[in-house]
Specification:
The structure is a homodimer.
Chain A: H1 5-21, H2 27-33, H3 40-52, E1 56-57, E2 66-67, H4 69-79, H5 87-96, H6 104-119, E3 122-126, E4 135-144, E5 147-154, E6 159-165, H7 172-186, H8 199-206, H9 211-229, E7 233-236, H10 250-261, H11 263-271, E8 278-281, E9 293-302, E10 306-315, H12 320-337
Helix pairs in contact in A: 1-3, 1-4, 2-3, 6-12, 8-9
Chain A binds a DNA duplex through residues 24, 26-29, 38-42, 44-45, 47-48, 58-65.
Chain lengths: 352, 352
DNA sequence: TGTTAGCACTCATATTCATCGAGTGCTAAC
DNA sequence: GTTAGCACTCGATGAATATGAGTGCTAACA
């Protein structure tokens, strides 16, 4: 069976109506409210065909039709109109996101809030993954008699540090030397590759007198690397799901919260997605807990290098057109906010 | 009217029953299940008195009695039995909380998770406020030609830093000098008092040649101080409220999520509470959004100095005895986990 | 051959009504 | 002061019924 022009028109009308009403769509309503150019009876026949083809389902015999994941997919790919964001909303978004690059975390958390507010869904944002980032600088600084601070700077100037309580007394010169050796050794290496490094033997081989110190530093070093690799996940707008008919069923609401509560799993899921604005619908998401939800994510970049994600999660019946547009516009603004003001550097990722 | 022995007994029975059943308690049920030593009719009379005194209410004429906030308060203060935590649960808690002081954030977030799981309520934890903490060390390190890192260490060895993109070229000597002057000037000052400091004029007065540099550093300095003063709020167990009868009403659930979603307000509310295990019931909480909830918070200390809070939030009908015990035990363990292993320092706060 | 009107049938939802029972408050007797 | 007895209240439960949007099928039509 073919997807004729008319079938597409009907499908589009059904998806569009259902997205706004959350009510199964019947043939008569459709013929009245849309200019299909066919009677209710004809539409009924077409609907029956569409159901056979897997685009529609039937909650029960005497109810109207409801789009399947497959229908939403078709809708998103080719049926939906492009949503045009009103100028005043654009302006509001832009104004909210003016920021300094040093406050990445706050800006991001703010962007997530904004997204929840704009879409009236649950939104999230993850800080950029540092995995592939290169180490740039390692320094261990004496602070007082028994404290030093280990500081690791990545190529993108993200800094992470840990205070170290020194067991034995130490001398500043050794620390300085150790810092130099460490920087020399590991500068340029990807941060995630550092977990596999055995700094104790490396130092032992190269600068045996520093061995003891290296041993003492090692756990903190490892720790700091791990912390650098961690990303944060911000979630906002959980309360919004209560205004969505799909979640008036307590069980559904609970499942939703349960799923969102598993931050680790959610973070991984989000990070593993492709770049750009990506829509996944119901079953396409994989995990059982997301069978009735859709995810829309987008990628933002910091200074053209670090890459993070943000997006929304909601029922499969979602205002796809509007939301993809908003997310896209939001990330464009984030990219701009996260671009270095001037003093660029020896890298790609400059396009304006 | 007096709270006779019998009235107290009845009140205790009602609160105890209601906490577990969530159903209004009637006189007959009470006389059957508890050894009050009076008939249902007598109990009825007493209940009527208790209602008049404000300890009980009536959802409707023909329903049993429900405790008021005032009753819960009396119950918490003097009626409830002390809950004894089973040894095996104690062991489980202790094992979960072994930690290193360097990973305060992770341990805390973990403690919050654990608390949600143990209480089957919504839990939260805030990182310690740094307001009163003293500055110990300021350093601005050259990283490469156009980047430096500003690092501020507090007396308790919490470190915060920001990468600074230098506008003009700078020389390492000046940075070092500036660091020294800054440290000398501000060492020992409370972090929150630093927001009022005008480092530009201070430097101008003391070391005029560094003025230009100070100007360049200033925004980052301010920023870093602000970041140090920020606390994080972890929330867990949001999904738990769906198993609580009080929140099967969608509206209540939404209000709850709304309230928890206002993280700033919630953080402030938590931080402003007194030390120790504190219970506030319904209207005692202040804000309208918490009129039907109770909060239990406790204080943990890091190395006897920094002080943070954690706790749970749930319906006023809460297992107060069990939960206060669990929170108390948990914070004791946290205190232990956050105590420095050895090499103590020149300070108070050592008690074991 | 595709389209349409007509009609019987389905089934979730809303409404009404009676019943049930836990609980109260009051009275009168102990 | 305590208790038994009793009328009364009122939410909850459940059966019976009506409603109506919607379907699928058939037969007529262009």
């Amino acid at each position: 069976m073919d997807l004729t022009e008319r079938k597409l028109k009907i499908l589009q009308a059904i998806v569009g109506d259902f997205i706004h009403s959350a009510e199964p769509v019947g043939s008569r309503t459709l013929s009245k409210h849309h200019d299909i150019g066919a009677s209710a009876a004809t539409i009924r026949n077409e609907m029956s065909d569409l159901e056979e083809m897997g685009y529609l389902t039937h909650p029960h015999t005497s109810a109207g039709r409801v789009p399947s994941d497959k229908a939403y997919r078709l809708y998103v790919n080719s049926l939906m109109d492009k949503y045009v964001i009103p100028e005043q909303e654009k302006k509001a978004i832009s104004e909210q996101l003016v920021s300094k690059v040093t406050e990445l975390d706050k800006t991001l958390s703010h962007a997530s809030e904004l997204l929840a507010q704009l879409t009236k869904l649950t939104s999230f944002a993850v800080t950029p993954a540092q995995d592939e980032n290169a180490l740039k600088y390692i320094n261990i600084l004496p602070v007082d008699e028994n404290t030093a601070v280990l500081m690791i700077v990545a190529e993108n100037d993200r800094v992470m540090n840990t205070a170290i309580r020194m067991r034995s007394s130490y001398d500043a010169k050794s620390l300085e030397l150790l810092s130099k050796v460490l920087t020399k050794n590991y500068k340029g290496r990807a941060i995630n590759s550092m977990l596999a490094v055995d700094i104790i033997s490396d130092i032992h081989r190269e600068a045996a007198p520093l061995s003891q110190l290296a041993k003492e530093i090692e756990p903190s070093f490892r720790n700091t690397i791990e912390n650098m690799l961690d990303v944060d996940l911000y979630i906002n707008g959980l309360e919004n799901i209560f205004s969505i008919p799909e979640y008036t069923d307590l069980n559904r609401a609970k499942n939703f919260m349960d799923m969102v509560g598993h931050k680790q799993a959610l973070t991984k899921l989000i990070m593993d997605r492709d770049s750009g604005v990506i829509v996944t619908i119901g079953g396409e998401n994989g995990p059982e807990s997301l069978k009735e939800s859709s995810l829309i994510t987008a990628t933002y970049t910091v200074n053209g290098k670090m890459v993070g994600k943000l997006g929304v999660i909601g029922p499969t019946r979602m205002r796809y057109s509007e939301i993809t547009s908003v997310i896209e516009y939001l990330t464009e603004n984030l990219d701009r906010a996260f671009r270095l003001p001037e003093g660029d550097e020896d890298d790609e990722g400059r396009d304006e």
